[in-house]
């Protein structure tokens, strides 16, 4: 068994074990992947202030996100087709999150259904909604999330049209994979993944198949998105879905201060500063670079969260130091899941927790809730000095 010390170790194992089609689906950004790359590299531009001779006993990473206690302010982001990275992936990830004491967010485009995840977990999870053209279907989806006692709704605003990721087109991404010679050859080397898949019935989009009307072929995520996602989603509709949900509402995909102000106006409980992990608008700012301007605009009026590019506990600390109250990981937990199932997700969370805790101590801080800009050295012009 290899010694796993960081998230990158998990990514390497995941790459060996998961089918190429699903590894590529996770490990890519749109078009040139500039935003995907900068999401991670921009974290490196922020330096930490080492402080000494500060009593570091009794540290705490515990905090709250939208009023819910969390062992550390790191939630699992909604990731479509998680159940194709590893059999029953959503259930495994949700269980790992529950045991660790952090929120799990189930994607609309999950393989395991809302009911299935609820049945196999005890802690309430969060549900991420993609708004579809079919309003009745969306209303039923919201009701199903209520019935499953989901404790927050994450409404994603940055994917009404799909950003093009070249590899998905070239690989013919589908679930379950189509048996082409190229795919079969690749799958023949992934026996661990294959055994898992043979042992489960969950291989289709569980929230959709059998629930949405007129679904002929649901195997292609790209076709479904193009046909079903509502391109007319606007702030009025956001207000309406917030009313239908009636509980905590988190708006995901905010990258601009003007949109952050709109989110505030419609009464969101929190926003997620996010560019969808660099998978949508290539050429947009990295999330960490976009954060300061959004904090200046709304930071004292609404809870601000961040995702996109977090690969370490140090990245988490940097986002919190710039003002975010919570963070999310997408790929960082998918790597763990694809490498080692539930145990791998737990490993991802443990790695991040340890890195966060030690970094906090070496910066002379004891409580994650007290982190502020003083722990950072932020280069001049980090947030941009635009015309
Ligand atoms: C493979 C994959 C699938 C995703 N699917 C969804 C989804 O179904 N809904 C959603 O709101 N965001 C989705 N996202 C975006 C994540 O929620 C999150 O914003 C992103 O992964 C954060 O960046 P990171 O992966 O660098 O942590 C997906 C991301 C990845 C990598």
Polypeptide structure, described:
The chain is an alpha/beta fold and 387 residues long. It has one domain: Alpha-Beta Barrel (TIM Barrel), CATH 3.20.20.70. The chain has helices at 7-17, 20-26, 34-41, 82-85, 89-100, 114-119, 135-147, 166-171, 181-187, 191-198, 221-228, 235-245, 257-265, 287-298, 313-321, 331-362; strands at residues 47-48, 63-65, 68-70, 74-76, 105-106, 126-129, 152-156, 249-254, 270-273, 303-306, 326-329, 376-377. The structure holds flavin mononucleotide.
Write the layout of secondary structure elements.
Blueprint: H1 7-17, H2 20-26, H3 34-41, E1 47-48, E2 63-65, E3 68-70, E4 74-76, H4 82-85, H5 89-100, E5 105-106, H6 114-119, E6 126-129, H7 135-147, E7 152-156, H8 166-171, H9 181-187, H10 191-198, H11 221-228, H12 235-245, E8 249-254, H13 257-265, E9 270-273, H14 287-298, E10 303-306, H15 313-321, E11 326-329, H16 331-362, E12 376-377
Parallel strand pairs: 4-11, 5-6, 6-7, 7-8, 8-9, 9-10, 10-11
Antiparallel strand pairs: 1-12, 2-3
Helix pairs in contact: 1-16, 5-16, 13-14, 15-16
This protein binds flavin mononucleotide.
Domain FMN hydroxy acid dehydrogenase: 1-381
Protein name: L-lactate dehydrogenase [cytochrome]
Active site: 276 (proton acceptor)
């Amino acid at each position: 068994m290899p010694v796993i010390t960081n998230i990158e170790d998990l990514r390497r194992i995941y790459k060996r074990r998961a089918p190429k089609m699903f590894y590529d689906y996770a490990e890519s950004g749109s078009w040139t992947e500039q935003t995907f790359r900068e999401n991670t590299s921009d974290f490196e531009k922020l330096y930490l202030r080492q402080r000494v001779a500060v009593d570091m006993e009794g540290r705490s990473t515990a905090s709250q996100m939208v009023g819910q206690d969390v062992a550390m302010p790191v939630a699992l982001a909604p990731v479509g087709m998680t159940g194709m990275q590893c059999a029953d992936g959503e259930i495994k990830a949700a269980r790992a999150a529950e045991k660790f004491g952090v929120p799990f967010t189930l994607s609309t485009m999950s393989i395991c259904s809302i009911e299935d995840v609820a049945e196999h977990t005890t802690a309430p999870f969060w549900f991420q909604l993609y708004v579809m053209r079919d309003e009745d279907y969306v209303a039923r989806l919201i009701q199903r999330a209520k019935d499953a006692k989901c404790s927050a709704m994450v409404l994603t605003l940055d994917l009404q049209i799909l950003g093009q990721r070249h590899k998905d087109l070239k690989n013919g991404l589908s679930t379950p994979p189509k048996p082409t010679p190229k795919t079969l050859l690749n799958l023949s080397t992934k026996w661990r993944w294959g055994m898992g898949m043979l042992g489960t019935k969950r291989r289709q989009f569980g929230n959709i198949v059998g629930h949405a009307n007129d679904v002929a072929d649901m195997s292609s995520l790209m076709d479904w998105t193009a046909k079903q996602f509502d391109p007319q989603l606007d702030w009025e509709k956001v207000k309406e879905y917030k009313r239908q949900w009636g509980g905590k509402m988190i708006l995901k995909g905010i990258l601009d201060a003007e949109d952050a102000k709109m989110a505030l106006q419609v009464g969101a409980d929190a926003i997620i500063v996010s560019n969808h992990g660099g998978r949508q608008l290539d050429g947009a700012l990295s999330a960490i670079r976009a954060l300061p301007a959004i904090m200046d605009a709304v930071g004292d009026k609404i809870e601000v969260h961040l995702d996109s590019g977090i690969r370490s506990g140090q990245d988490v600390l940097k986002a919190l130091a710039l003002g975010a109250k919570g963070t999310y990981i997408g790929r960082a937990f998918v790597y763990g899941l694809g490498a080692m199932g539930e145990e791998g997700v737990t490993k991802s969370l443990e790695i991040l927790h340890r890195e966060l805790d030690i970094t906090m101590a070496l910066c002379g801080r004891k409580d994650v809730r007290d982190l502020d800009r003083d722990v950072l050295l932020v280069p001049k012009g980090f947030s941009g000095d635009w015309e």
